[in-house]
Amino acid sequence: MRVVLDLDLCQGHGVCVEEAPDIFRLNDDGAGYGRVELLLPQPPQALRASLERAARYCPNRVITVVDD
Amino acid sequence: MSLADAAGAGPGAPWRSAPKVSGARAEGGHLAEFAENFCRFLARAHRECGELAEFDLGGQETVLMSGPEAQEAFFRAPDEQLSQALAYQVMVPVFGPGVIFDAPPERCKAQLKIQVDALRYQNMKNYAGVIAGEVEDWSAAWGEQGELELLHEFHQLTLHTATHCLLGGHFRHHLSEEFYRLYQDLQAGIQAVSFVDPYLQQPVFARRDRARERLEQLVSELIARRRASGLVVGDALETFMAGTYPDGSHLTDGEITGLVIATLFAGHHTSSGAAAWTLVELARHPEACREIVAELDAIDARGLAPGLQALREMPALEAFIGEVLRLHPPLVVLMRRVMRDFSFRDALIPAGKTVAVSIYESHQNPDYFPEPARFDPHRPEPERMFAYIPFGGGRHKCAGNAFAMLQLKAIFSALLRRYAFELAAPPERYVDEVANMTMKPRAPCVVRYRARKGSPGRTPA
């Protein structure tokens, strides 16, 4: 399981960080919209539920979960 | 490299120009036809010319980009190539100097980021409570049955929720009458002629400028009171006051006022129009309405406390609103000014022209929405990105999209728990009003309501 981000779409709302703080963090330098960064590009199955919530509730549909 | 560059013609290939829409007049080009019914005009432009269609809006050559590929190129282009700010200079005297479209790019970016900060999780939780309370107050005296004129009702309700979420409950309840009058003067300052020159000597523009000045006084006084009291209320103003530029400096009172106005202009009419259309479609589709009521009853039976989490778990209501936004997108057209020559496939759009995307037209594409005129709340969202774009897309996508959804769900989950609705006029009388830049039903727009039997949370009269 891996996470793919479409950073053109990210406005740094931070919903993913609320839902899955082990997987995402916000790069927030104040110069513009914050941008999501991956702490765990290939998160373990145990984090699947929180990852899926992050993807579903992201206001800008930045996050895709890919099963290879 | 953007998709547009990648998709351009190979080396040495001649660029073509976007094909031109027929029927331009010597005076004003297509402006008259566009102003009369821009939905119909843009549909014709797309039908006649395809993916790219150039027309003339009173001297401003504008290229409509249609279909998900062209729309993706539009939304993914960087600001340095397609400028949002230059396409919306008409808003500058309304928002005030140095705010968003008038700010240097670096300050503009920081301001937009601070606006997003006001939409974060903790704020959204507060807003969910605020909206629920406003809906409660609004409908408290409705009684067992009656009629509502939706344009007026939702104009008021969303003005109250917006003011409350932006400036706090005290301001909303005690100081907002003058605020609403000033807001009206600002809106009246956006005229067709503003797009030609928003600084002409005209009484409406003079009133607009006085209103902007007085608003800044009101907001400054509120800021001073907040600073003095140290009160924490969890509204957007608080976030705007706390926000900083990269050098650590804070926004000026004028900039904070501008952000308040910009947020109100982005969210108020769009939300009130969407709410009016949602209720009309609910009254028109009793079957789908029953499904949503069952969803709400199931949530109540689970004992899920009202609030952000419960509002998230309403897929049937969300899909219904999604279909309302497809058929009646609150903002119909989005524009950008071309700063650097912009290519798409084998066509070149030179700097100086405007490019446009029609959200309305995009949502009528039968490749992605079979039988597009039919309202179908079970319609799956297209796999192809940038086909369904009620909030735009890319870096300038409406940052309030989650707030807008939250608000609509909060309003209709509360209403449908207590009332059933039906149209008060023949169904064909409920049509899009295309005279304004935001989509609403045509006035008057009346529905009847009656209390659901045994509806929860109602005190006997």
At the fourth level of CATH, the homologous superfamily of chain B is Cytochrome P450
In this structure, how is the largest beta sheet of chain B organized? Answer: 5 strands, mixed
Query: What's the count of strands of chain B?
Result: 12
DSSP helix count of chain B? 19
Structure description:
The complex is a heterodimer of chains A (68) and B (461). Chain A is α+β, with helices and mostly antiparallel strands. Chain A has one domain: Alpha-Beta Plaits, CATH 3.30.70.20. Chain A contains two helices and four strands; from the N terminus they run E-H-E-E-H-E. Chain A has helices at residues 15-19, 48-57, and strands spanning 2-5, 24-27, 35-38, 63-66. A two-stranded antiparallel sheet of chain A has the order 1-4. A two-stranded antiparallel sheet of chain A has the order 2-3. The longest helix of chain A has 10 residues, at 48-57. The model of chain A has no long low-confidence stretch (mean pLDDT 94). Mean pLDDT of chain B is 92; it is low at 1-9 and 457-461. In chain B, 50% of the residues lie in helices and 11% in strands. In chain B, a hairpin with a 6-residue loop joins strand 10 and strand 11 (440-441). Chain B is an alpha+beta fold and 461 residues long. Chain B has a five-stranded mixed beta sheet with strand order 1-2-8-5-3. Chain B has a three-stranded antiparallel beta sheet with strand order 4-12-9. Chain B has a two-stranded antiparallel sheet with strand order 6-7. The chains are: A alpha+beta (68), B alpha+beta (461).
